Amino acid sequence: MLCAGKKSYFAAAVCIITVTSMLAVPYLQLQRLSHQPKVIQEGRRCGGKIANSTITALKGNKTFIISPYFDDRESKVTRLIGIVHHEDVKQLYCWFCCQPSGKIYVSKAKIDVHSDRFGFPYGAADIVCMEPENCDPTHVSIHQFPHGNADQLPRFEIKNRKAETFSVDFTVCISTMFGNYNNVLQFIQSMEMYKILGAQKVVIYKNNCSHLMEKVLEFYIEEGTVEIIPWPINSHLRVSSEWHFMQDGTHIGYYGQITALNDCIYRNMERSKFVVLNDADEIILPLKHPNWKAMMNSLQEQNPGTSVFLFENHIFPETVSSHMFNISSWNTVPGVNILQHVYREPDRKDVINPRKMIVDPRKVIQTSVHSVLRAYGKSANVPMDVALIYHCREPLQRDLPRESLIRDTTLWRYNLSLIKNVNKVLSRVML
């Protein structure tokens, strides 16, 4: 026997580790080999209809593909952002068609369901496939089996195939707009604050909104600020407006917000230096710097090797108003006037304030809502005296008297530019 005669615990432990490692290496090699692409057909033209929807259901309606992205940060793979049933989806295969050879390669996928599923049966997932050598496939199909008819499978364009120079410094990702969203005034104010602070692009995953909100979105699309990603997730799954599972038969939380956030990071990985992850009623407000660029330059200098910066959320209840900036022309526009809400709730005892993020998208592998799940760099909590999240919404501490709230007029530093810009938008949208 390999370990015969060893009586001490130390020797036994060394022996076990040695045997385990001897067995593990071949197993890992076999696992890697099983995921290597294999040629199954030759001399064919790439078939299958190209998928144009944001969300595409595969046969059986247990797997939903959002979009594939080329990812060579560790090895040459295609990473598909998707939604899967965490128990029922056991195996998937990527079908790559290489031109001009016409060879079709099949690669077994690694299915990585994100850990932040919050009890729902469906969750965000990375479907990762090794790409064939000597081939830069432009499209990929996904199938439950390694054999079949490629012409019957939808084809997805693989994004990020070509590295680009950054076209913008800051992109804001907002997910998801649903519930016939009609908070028009606050949305315009948030958009104009993002632009004042340094955002050049805002990506919105839109499920639905009011007719008036559609007009506002059309203005920002024509301006070049907003990119709309249609998000018809309720056409495929029973969605919840809650973030955690309520045992109510729903399939996925908060309209698939986590999937949308991950897609937004990869979608902007090659075109934006930073990605800002927050909601439309949240603004990351710098306290020591005039804008995000100056703030991030300082934060990166102080935190080398950090790729994720987390900002503390603070509630400015919409139920408590200041008499300042009661602008009559805004009173007919539905929604909240954030300039009138400058009282924030104090911290709650034994409750940690949630955080939102500004990230280097090239360093993020998987994200949740309030933190990243996997990244190449470090994460840093930004001190509250540097920046905070201005979050104007319904109060969390409803019974607090006004004198217990903290007056914080940081937002008013931007009032002249904000009022001018909001008025310009309202006049152009004819509100």
Automatic annotation (TrEMBL):
Transmembrane portions of the chain: 9-28
A GO MF label: glycosyltransferase activity
Keyword Transmembrane: yes
Main location, first listed in the record: membrane
Highest taxon listed in the record's lineage: Eukaryota
Gene Ontology, cellular component aspect: cytoplasm; membrane
EC number, UniProt record: 2.4.1.-
Keyword tags: Glycosyltransferase, Membrane, Transferase, Transmembrane, Transmembrane helix
Record flagged with keyword Glycosyltransferase: yes
Membrane topology: Single-pass membrane protein
Top-level class of the enzyme under EC nomenclature: transferase
Localisation: Membrane
Similarity field: Belongs to the glycosyltransferase 92 family.
Protein's name in the database: Glycosyltransferase family 92 protein
